[in-house]
Amino acid sequence: LTSREFHPDDTIVDVDGVKIGDGSFVTMAGPCSVEGLDQIRESARMAKAGGAKILRGGAFKPRTSPYAFQGLEEEGLKIMRQAADEFGLKVITELMDEAHVDVVAEYSDIIQIGARNMQNFKLLATVGKTGKPVGLKRGISGTIDEWLNAAEYVAFAEKSPVIFIERGIRTYETATRNTFDLSAVPIIKKLSHFPIIVDPSHGTGVWDLVTPMARAGVAAGADGMIVEIHPDPANAWSDGPQSLNEKNYLNMMKEVNVLVKAM
Ligand code: PEP
Ligand code: MN
What we know:
Blueprint: E1 13-15, E2 18-20, E3 26-30, H1 37-50, E4 54-56, H2 73-86, E5 90-94, H3 101-107, E6 110-113, H4 121-127, E7 134-137, H5 144-155, E8 162-166, H6 184-191, E9 196-198, H7 200-204, H8 207-220, E10 224-228, H9 246-262
Parallel strand pairs: 3-4, 3-10, 4-5, 5-6, 6-7, 7-8, 8-9
Antiparallel strand pairs: 1-2
Bound molecules: phosphoenolpyruvate (PEP) and manganese (II) ion (MN).
Domain DAHP synthetase I/KDSA: 12-260
Keywords: Transferase
Protein name: Phospho-2-dehydro-3-deoxyheptonate aldolase
């Protein structure tokens, strides 16, 4: 269901009027975590000012440590929806647990499946029945073949389209948080009809590497990107070191737009 052999033409994913995979470059921007109404409203304002169409933000967070902030949960979903609606943005947010599928679907336009759940097959099957587009992150050590099979689980019910998200994979390299695998973009384009976007934030883990890798994502032919921004990255509750402040985000968007026009 996900392969080009089955479906030769590109699938354009329509997110309530925002089209992904139609040759445009769609930006999803927002904080790693929803921290409160002021923070998510300010993030939404920034996202919109830079030209993003979709607000990202986690309300259920897959944290490495159980002692770290785990997310505002349903309250986070509500205030993110409110902030997105105020600025005319769509919402992407992560679903971690089948138990929350209804509440996450209620408040979001795209449901994100995180890297740590790429092979949570029951979760993939469940989210695939919602009819909402599914942003499927590549697993931390996921091969392309495993990722395609994961997408097949999502597509199995023939209800939800898939948006692949390349977010870097674990290698022996320590200068970056993950090794951003840009070759995944043309490979997925060749093998699947569904769109692929890049996540240069988790792909690098370092804010000043995000803009060059966002530019590279455009050049590689990605259908868009998802990027972490924050009104005050130094005090972010999660992923501050890879988050862009307003000035750096607006600058990145300027550079990305120049390349998008040239493609
Ligand atoms: C995130 O988007 O904040 C996130 C947790 O991403 P990943 O699943 O790629 O680590
Ligand atoms: Mn994050």
